[in-house]
Write a structure and sequence with these properties.
By secondary structure, the chain is mostly helical. The protein has helices at about 1-25, 30-55, 55-60, 70-90, 95, 110-135, 145-175, 180-190, 205-210, 215-225, 235-265, and strands at about 60-65, 65-70.
């Protein structure tokens, strides 16, 4: 057992280094783009809000519960980008590493875990850098419940892994479904509470949005981040169950279908 764990660590670490070099070593701006993407997205939407409000300062004004709009956006965009990138990277892990599976010690799940770990490392660095920049330019706040926030992010991280494995198995069996993933992610981007608080939505429409577990993750993380923020209609139990279901379905599909996936071209 210990020998198998040691072998798993060695393989995962080797693929992790390979992924790191492939993703960021090939282009000089690779590391910089990881930071620029959320900053440019925040700037874009603050600018749009500023145009609608008539001034840039108006675009950055507090939106709800005394939270400055750039901080509100960052608290939604950065976790969502972690989800989107994790699902995409895990989903494409088999295609990107298929040649390695000829070596007996290397399993598809090793490639999935390596990419998942890399996305986690990127998320931590990104979160620290973006909020440090916002703090430096004057958008300051205090974290109400740091441990609760970290626990929610970890749950979201494991939820992303489960969804990534599900997508990986499904699109490798039904390749045409791969084309539906980007528009599906765009759909989630606009309906997951990144630009709005669930409390700004009329009650008769909330029930439809609350089917989306990502909205619960984002709103509950904001509640643990900002001192006066409230997300009473979101459910902690719902995201626990959603995470357990995504991991169970993902690992079950992997166990049942991985040979079929590897046999396909």
């Amino acid at each position: 057992m210990l020998k198998e764990i040691k072998q798993l660590q060695t393989v995962v670490f080797a693929i992790f280094l390979r992924e790191l070099k492939t993703r960021f070593g090939k282009y000089r701006l690779g590391y910089l783009w990881a930071v620029l993407e959320p900053l440019l997205t925040i700037t874009l939407f603050v600018g749009i809000r500023g145009i609608l409000a008539g001034s840039l300062r108006g675009g950055a004004d507090k939106i709800i519960y005394h939270v400055d709009y750039p901080l509100f956006l960052a608290a939604g965009i950065i976790p969502f980008f972690m989800f989107r990138h994790t699902v995409s990277q895990v989903m494409n892990s088999i295609e990107a590493n298929r040649g390695l599976f000829a070596y007996q010690p290397v399993k598809p799940i090793d490639a999935m875990i390596s990419r998942w770990i890399l996305e986690g490392v990127i998320f931590v660095f990104l979160w620290v850098i973006v909020f440090s920049i916002l703090h430096f330019i004057g958008f300051r706040t205090e974290i109400k419940d740091p441990l609760g926030l970290i626990f929610l992010y970890l749950l979201f991280y494991f939820f992303s892994l489960g969804i990534g494995i599900i997508f990986c198995i499904v699109v490798n069996i039904f390749d045409e479904l791969r084309n539906f993933v980007p528009p599906f992610m765009l759909f989630l981007f606009f309906l997951s509470g990144i630009f709005f608080s669930i409390n700004m939505i009329p009650q008769k429409f909330q029930i439809y949005l609350l089917w989306n577990p990502i909205l619960h993750f984002i709103e509950l993380s904001r509640e643990r981040f900002f001192p006066f923020y409230q997300a009473d209609v979101c459910s902690f139990e719902y995201i626990i169950v959603s995470t357990a279901i995504s991991l169970f379905l993902g690992l079950s599909l992997y166990r049942l279908k991985i040979r079929e996936v590897l046999a396909s071209e």
